[in-house]
Amino acid sequence: MAAFLDKERTIAGPGFNRWLVPPAALAIHLCIGMAYGFSVFWLPLSKALGIKESVKCGPDIGFFAELFTTQCDWRISTLGWMYTLFFVFLGCSAALWGGWLERAGPRKAGVVAALCWCGGMLLSALGIYVHQFWIMLLGSGVIGGIGLGLGYISPVSTLIKWFPDKRGMATGMAIMGFGGGAMIGSPLAADLMKQFADAQSVGVMPTFVVMALIYFVFMMAGALGYRVPPIGWKPAGWTPPVIHASNNMITQRHVHVKNAFKVPQFWLVWMALCMNVSAGIGVIGMSSPMLQEVFGGSLIGVAARYSELDKTQLAAIAGVAAGFTALLSLFNIGGRFFWASLSDRLGRKLTFAVFFVLGAVLYFGVPGSAAAHSVFLFVGAFCIILSMYGGGFATVPAYLADLFGTQFVGAIHGRLLTAWATAGILGPVVVNYMRDFQLAQGVPREQVYNQTMYILVGMLAVGLLCNLLVRPVADHWFMSDAELAEEKRLAHEKVASAQAGAATGAAGAEVSSPLLAWLAWAAVGLPLAWGIYRTLLGVVKLFG
Predict the structure, then answer these.
(1) pTM strictly above 0.70
(2) 444 and 516 share a domain?
(3) Selected residue with higher pLDDT from 375 and 354
(4) Helix (H) or strand (E) holding 91
(5) Sign of torsion, CA 460 466 472 477?
(6) Alpha helix (H) residue ranges in 53-75
(7) Rounded to whole angstroms, how far apart are CA atoms 11 and 497?
(8) Residue 287: how many other CB atoms lie within 10 Å
(9) Which structural domain range is residue 186 located in?
């Protein structure tokens, strides 16, 4: 089994259809993308013991005591730490093991990701069963977070090498799946919990088990479907572009991952991604309460502020706000493919400049649309903003490949994801604490986000400046031909194009059929279409 996972065994033979690789990547990303949807479990888990009502912890039970207690239910604020650990360990594991992934290959990394993500969910199910939150943190937070990091970056280098002519589109297709995972997983989890819930259980524990098993099948299929191109491979009829003044941001050489932190361009792109993500992720976390507080009763045709609504009216506008959140998720997903594909034409630097300039204009206009009570303009602005939030994630791997080459792009991308972990703290802190500060100053609820929007404009201005400062990497950072040859040897990239078939046996013949590609795309496309359908049902409430 270990030999089967070796990188040498994944080198594609003649006739391999490169369009089989994106659905393999999607199969993994659609599963680990459920990390975005874990909040669907918080409310049921907060009543794991009481079933109908939470069994409140006493004042003597602090956070650390809550990790081990079996006498009371977990607070939602405590459960949220699992979500925080997801992205902390995603960034850390991607940074730590990105170099190993380049040498071990995407198949081995994908299998490890499946074992960690699904094994973590099973361990969390045990934690729910024995009511020990520390086991849940270890399972999904730590072990699952490591699976997130390895699964997230596993296809990046491979896709960029298979699609040198469409780098942005290829990475956009895969990373789109991470944004779409919650669209499938959240309604699936809700349906399963309803099925398993009874007088003795809220149904979360068996839901974790079933979803872990389903995800394991899909993730293993994706991992085993990975192939890497042999040295010298290129798409039929395509030739690498000649470097000249108009496209000198795209290099044909390679920077070693050990030097990435030393190159100024790495930190400029790091800061650009951090600012783009910080502005978007803060909005994602507060999208539902923001819409409700800004527009209040007007969402349901009632001329009243948020603070003047009764419980029935509050429940009604919460349903409308859920549709807003669902709509944002659709634009987050679509933007990953749209903007990344567009970057193949515009170039990565110009695409990021559009993110910052257009985003700043939209954030600056949000207070005005709120004051004019225009739900359409308010919602439209944030839909475009969230499309660029997702687009930043999908475009940055191609940006790195343009600047640093493809040999270590997966490992360098892993290190860059520490910007995501930083933004995951910075963005929500700015939005949440500014809201609390404004409320404490007596600012009306419908205006508490105005100052925040202007702060986010400033963050995007910083990102724009960093992006404008990006220049081609200096020659002395690139590996020599001898150094590159040695790295290719260590990465087991020693099979030339003419020898690829002998290394993989009949692999090329097995995968050359177009029917197989259609089946692979159907396997990931049908669940994604179902998730979009379920999401659109929620969107109808927003404009219905």
Answers:
(1) yes
(2) no
(3) 354
(4) helix 76-104
(5) negative
(6) 63-66
(7) 10
(8) 21
(9) 18-233+495-536
